[in-house]
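In the previous chapter we treated chains in isolation. Here, by contrast, the input contains two separate entities that must be folded as one system, with a combined length of 902 residues.
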Amino acid sequence: VESGPLATLRAAVRGTVERGESALAAANRDASPVIGNADAVVRPVDASDVASLVRWARREKVPLTARGGGTSLDGESVPVAGGVVVDFREWTAIEGVDAAARRVTVGPGVVNRTLHEWLTPLGLFFPPNPGSWKSSTLGGNVSTNASGPRSFRYGSTRRWVAGADVVLGTGEIARLGPTTLKRSVGPELLDLVVGSEGTLALITSITLRLAKAPARRCGVVVPLPPGARLGRIAGLLASEAPRGVSAIEYVDATVAAALRERPGARLPGPGALLLLEVESDSESAESEALVALASRFQAAGVPESPSVLPDADRMWSLRGEAGAVVADRTGPSVREDVAVPLGAVDSLLERVDAIARSEGTESHVYGHLGQGNLHPTFALDPASEGGRRVRQAVLNAARALGGTVSGEHGVGSLKRDWVAEELGPAPLELLRAWKRVSDPDGILNPGKLLP
Amino acid sequence: VESGPLATLRAAVRGTVERGESALAAANRDASPVIGNADAVVRPVDASDVASLVRWARREKVPLTARGGGTSLDGESVPVAGGVVVDFREWTAIEGVDAAARRVTVGPGVVNRTLHEWLTPLGLFFPPNPGSWKSSTLGGNVSTNASGPRSFRYGSTRRWVAGADVVLGTGEIARLGPTTLKRSVGPELLDLVVGSEGTLALITSITLRLAKAPARRCGVVVPLPPGARLGRIAGLLASEAPRGVSAIEYVDATVAAALRERPGARLPGPGALLLLEVESDSESAESEALVALASRFQAAGVPESPSVLPDADRMWSLRGEAGAVVADRTGPSVREDVAVPLGAVDSLLERVDAIARSEGTESHVYGHLGQGNLHPTFALDPASEGGRRVRQAVLNAARALGGTVSGEHGVGSLKRDWVAEELGPAPLELLRAWKRVSDPDGILNPGKLLP
């Protein structure tokens, strides 16, 4: 017999309620070292069921934490204050795509890759491609404003959200965003959901903008000379590369060496690598872009000729293994997600080096160089004292260099202490006020995002 | 000797205070029929002066209405509740552009065209190009989420705002937006300024995103057969046109006939016209896009071959006269700004016709067909009873067809009565709550936007 607030939960919702050990254990972890203490997992059946759940949680003062693919890296989907995990993984509907409007409506549980595969035959794509795309859900992508290599050309998830159905922390259902392709009727309230990590509302449906897929995508890989000034190279490429360049990625020399050993890799070398993607609509446009790009590399002082990989997918599958090859070397590691202005990239790398040396460990860096968003990785257990120290040091370094503590992963519970300083006092107070209005009882994902 | 609240104004700010008849008369009008009753015009000198002004206005309970180019079409910049007009037209600084980050920081008083001309030699551009671009300011463009023909490819102003310095209605100064090219630290609070029509904060500085200019832009003009189904044509072009198509415009047969009479127009005919812009980076890419586009026109059942205008600027200067040729025919007119889903475009045009007939007047339609955003214009004085009736009828028609009362102009004081129904109850309450937090005394542009 159940007692306490949860005694009334099964009667309050129509969806399944699980309280078994294995269900709770799965709900208590994401891809971060954060561990939760869930009391139950609920799988609501529709938006009105979510609203019932929220009203129940308000009455009983029970926290609700939304969960999709569980790939968050800072504890975003872990129930650190206990309560109910709201599992949206079965909300996998992809509703009729509108090719003229370039929009599609999806359930929050649709996996990023599933949507990608669904759209490919239509000649459309959803540009944000986080490293977790094979298992992260679109609800999670929206909640963390996720992105990946292609954000260089296409921006982060925020730009691709056209609308959302949500349940506010008040229990009210709200449809946010216009029905048309353009609207100027006040500020769009969509920001209540994009990047808010489930702290302001629960997402029950998302309308995404789509891009027309280019006819061709090729990869361009070039080894960097030792001591290359990355910030200057990135700046020159970002300002003067052809418009079709959709990604400017970096992997350091150690990561590149490990990737070269993968079967069939055929990556040029030695040393660190730049990996670019070039989109075009014809063979001749691609050739023109590649010629222009080669001259940009020369101007940037990159001595080697770039290797062209006619199939960008092969480059991406290698690039996607960067995290795995680092993990193979290091075991559990601290993997950060800072972004700095391009001019500060080299200073950031120097500081990462110094931080690793001061802890007597090794560091690796790879990431989205074209936007100054890098993932410094340290061979330390993230739950250890040393792991905590290096995280703190690298986040402080990014802030000191005029950067942000999160380029694309989010804040979760691990980076809350930096939010006040990064946002500044007046914006933080606005955010707190939005929270009070949208979630008056503080039941939505407590312990996340807000300091 | 001044009495009342304004007696203390001159001492409260460092900027000039004007109360002369001609200054007030100018401040009481925008491009709409709305007329204000300003008590004073203030030209603050810097952000701290704006903050002083806001603190003074809070103490004295005096409304503040921000003003840029005064081109708003619904009374957005008109002080309908009296008080002080805050004139930002002298805030015309364009600070160092960052070509690698593709950003520029501007004062709110910079005119859209001035920025365009300033950026051209750098190979960059700010995509939103409202019809008012020769005189509207970027502060106003941001405040109304303005856009124009190129929003088909590039979206509205919202997408191009990377950051802003604002003074809240509390008198606090806040910097909104990241310093980096990517950030995932909670919801971005920039929406406090984009589209909020000066009701939540006063903008003192804007950081805009920029696009790399294409090497080539050409115009494509094609006459439409009588009875062409516009929604279907727009849908086919929007879903299947080459990626380089940046605008899909429409002018009806009467407007097209008037444009053809302009000196040197050389527009094909007869009948209504579609006007498209194609961007490309080389002659060969342009040729490929034009061939693809011609086959799309055929598939859409457009019998005439499109005429290519090698210089898109010439097409745009003709298209830019659409409003003027209508005004020449009609005198003062009601010019609306509705948007509907593409599938509802033809129904909208039928209703516009019926509305005009029921008032015994003529109507004209032109606008941004590719996004379903059209400007139905009626030959009636907007301040007359008939003018009010047709405005009401066309806004109701757009809503009934699943559309919005404003695609790109804003709400101002003329469309407030539609906002509650369009946003829905929960989003409206959120917006009211944002307002209470950002402007607790309700001094910022009262009588606008919110019903």
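The mean pLDDT of chain A is 95. Chain A touches chain B through 92 residues (CB under 8 Å). Compare these points with the single-chain example from earlier in the chapter.
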